[in-house]
Amino acid sequence: MCSTIFLFNTLKAANVTWLSAVNGNWSDGTKWSGGVAPGVNDTAVITVSGTYTVTVNTPVSLAKLVVGGASGTQKLYSTSSPIDFANTSQISGGGTIEIYSTTLGHAGVTLVNNGKIQLYYNNTLPLIINNNDTIRVSHSGNYITGTLNN
Predict the structure, then answer these.
(1) Which residue, 5, 30, 38, 101, could crosslink 44 as a Cys pair with Cβ 3.0–4.6 Å?
(2) Which CA distances in Å does 2 have to 5, 31, 69, 111, 114?
(3) Residues 20-61: pLDDT tens digits?
């Protein structure tokens, strides 16, 4: 007689939070709750009060992104590393996303902007942007290929 056992590893979505108001690289797990950078099933939460920059130094795929705390300026910065999220995400009042040569989000997904988006050269935003604050375009080659709702 032969028995077969199936084991399933279910990945549970989690909020992974930037721990303190210090500059750092996205991939540095010591800066995130749980000891690792957020992954495809996680919500990245960058809301701790203070003024600092989280530098995206590797391609990012998330369930959701939340940027912006109660005070100070929380900046998510990327040069050439795509930032993708599968569900409606938000930039709050203190939050800024500043990008160069980056793709932000993907078609059909919504980003609610109550903070600031700064676009430098060669960015693509294929998502739906519900803009309630500021989108600043500083240079050429920037494309919002999704929907912009002001």
Answers:
(1) 38
(2) 10, 48, 57, 52, 59
(3) 999 999 999 999 999 999 999 999 999 999 999 999 999 999
Q: How many CA atoms lie within 13 A of 112 on its CB side?
A: 10
134 phi and psi angles, rounded to 5 deg: -125, 130
CA 9 to chain centre: 26
CB distance 61 to 90 below 8 Å: no
Nearest CA among 50, 52, 43 for reference residue 16: 43
**Residue entry with tokens 């600043």:** 136
CA distance 24 to 121: 23
Q: What is the rounded CA–CA span in Å between residue 66 and residue 64?
A: 7
The answer to whether 136 and 116 have CB atoms below 8 angstroms apart is yes
Please, what sign has the CA dihedral across residues 7, 40, 51, 149? negative
Q: Alpha-carbon distance 27 to 46, whole Å?
A: 14
Structure tokens at 127: 């998502």
CB 96 within 8 A of CB 76: yes
**Torsion sign across C-alpha atoms 50, 42, 39, 96:** negative
pLDDT band at 13 (very low <50, low <70, confident <90, very high): confident
